[in-house]
Design brief:
globular, mainly alpha, 5 helices
Length: 136
């Protein structure tokens, strides 16, 4: 039996959903940082591999939080999890590509990171709200 979606900060309102999306995504980013740094510094795994591990492991819990908390779905469509995983891979490529392009400009590194991250967040929200978790 599917559990009821969790109502956090008035999710019936559009801005509540935006806030929940940012909070869940922020939690996912914290998980990524903790896992990738832990794997790298505690176990000596190379940075690239620790980044991949840190990106893959949080997919399931963050998917569940986005589905239940942000988009308030009790049951998932059959293709929602694979689509979400593909979105995360595409988003990582988008942010990486934008960061690589940005490094060729005179912008400081932190500005490139912020701009690429904002582009990734916007793309992620649009794909999740209109394709992955859309109301049928």
């Amino acid at each position: 039996m599917a559990s009821a979606p969790i109502d956090v900060i008035g999710l019936k309102h559009r801005y509540g959903r935006y806030m929940a999306f940012l909070l869940v995504g922020g939690f996912g980013f914290v998980l990524y940082l903790a896992i990738s740094n832990g794997v790298h510094y505690l176990f000596g795994v190379e940075e690239a591999w620790s980044a991949v591990i840190g990106s893959v492991l949080p997919i399931w819990p963050i998917y569940q939080l986005q589905r239940r908390v942000t988009f308030r779905q009790r049951t998932a469509r059959a293709n929602a999890l694979p689509a979400y995983a593909a979105l995360q891979a595409g988003n990582a490529m988008l942010v990486g590509a934008l960061s690589a392009l940005g490094s060729r400009t005179s912008l400081p590194g932190y500005m490139i990171f912020v701009l690429a991250g904002v582009a990734g967040v916007i793309a992620s929200y649009l794909v999740q709200s209109r394709l992955i978790f859309r109301k049928t």
